Amino acid sequence: MSPASHPSAFSPAAPEVHVELAAGWTQVPAGADLVRFERHGGRAVLTVALRTVGRDVTLEDLLDEMVAGEHARPDAQVDPTFGLEIDGRAWRACNVSWDTPVVVVHLVTAVDHGPVQQMVLVSGRAEGEQVEADYDAIQQLAESLHVVVSQP
Question: Looking at the domain assignment, is residue 11 inside a domain?
Answer without folding.
Answer: no
